[in-house]
Amino acid sequence: MGLARDKANFYSMLASMAQAGLGLRQCFGLSSFPYRLRPAARSICELLDAGVPLPEAMHRQSVFTAFECNLVSVGVASGTLDATFSTLSQWFTDSHQFRSQIISALAHPMLTYFVAGPLLGVVDYFATGLSLTTTIIRCIAWWLAPIAIWFLLKFLGRLLSSLPLFSFLIESLPVLGPLLHSLESSRFYRAFGLSLRAGIGMVNSIELASGCVKGSVTRTKFDRVKRDIQENGMPFTVALKEVASLRDRTSSILPLLATGEQSGSLAESCLRIADMASEDARTTLRRIAGVAPIVAFLPLAFYIGYRVISFYAGHIGQINTLTE
């Protein structure tokens, strides 16, 4: 969460300096960047002095993603780096806010979870006669389980995200699917619209924008669009209709693209789609943040209730046995 906030500030500073007309060397030479990004900024300065283009210099820094580097490539090619930096600043500001909302919504269920571990351990200790050592080990395992699951999901996500079947299954999920579609659409059409506005050719614009998306299914879709345009001379909207997903067809993306292509304002239509997709993602994440506490709390509450009832039921059973 902290890195997203730092990047939002980083790109905001760069946008302000670029709008003021400062050169790249002066922009990245600023010493008041967020602490975690200062080494990368210093390295970029050295590479710029050595004649390395900005996108390549950023690509050599592990802290920057392919999305950032490709979008900066578009900004350099179009001469709109200030707008590109502003777009990235807004992107990471939204990302920070989204994560903050979800973490805030999950704070109470997680607090309940971590407090419940020792309480259930005490119940087991007195009810089942567990040893103190076993009880302590169970409490530690209870606390470490969510952390282990988080790292496992993060590792598996990176490992499986490149597989088309996995990406297809994720995008087919009821809530997560629309969210990922909105995020990927925002990434692609933002970069695509900026590229077209800069006068970059259709095929090159698609190639640059495809590098901004994360999912292999989305990337494959636009690679096929690019191939159809190259080989068959199709207009962009017609080529996209051939491979459009169900979510593409049921959204306003295709009508907006068709209108933009017919009126000669495809770049503006793409940027409008990007704005709409970003807003859809915000709305979906707000809904997730509202439902997440209930989804996380109810199973935990049922489990704790079951354990407490089992504890008292066992004692009542022992009392009934003694009184008979």
Write a concise synopsis of the structure shown.
With 324 residues, the chain is an all-alpha fold. Helices cover 83% and strands 0% of the residues. The protein contains 15 helices and no strands.
Describe the structure.
This protein is elongated. It has a domain at 2-64. It is mainly alpha-helical and 324 residues long. The longest helix has 58 residues, at 266-323. Helices cover 83% and strands 0% of the residues.
List keywords for this structure.
mainly alpha; 15 helices; 0% strand
The coarse overall form would be elongated
Sketch the major β-sheet: none
User: Could you estimate the helical fraction of the residues in percent?
Assistant: over 70%
Query: Tally the helices: what do you get?
Result: 15
Uncertain residue ranges: none
How many strand elements? 0
Structural class given helices, strands, pairing? mainly alpha
Distance between the termini: 61 Å
Beta content: under 5%
Instruction: Return the string of H and E elements.
Output: HHHHHHHHHHHHHHH
The gyration radius over C-alpha positions equals 26 Å
The overall pLDDT average reads: 83
Oligomer: single chain
Give a topology summary.
Blueprint (H helix, E strand, L loop, with lengths): L1 H18 L4 H5 L9 H12 L4 H6 L6 H13 L2 H48 L3 H29 L3 H8 L4 H22 L4 H9 L5 H17 L3 H8 L2 H5 L2 H11 L2 H58 L1
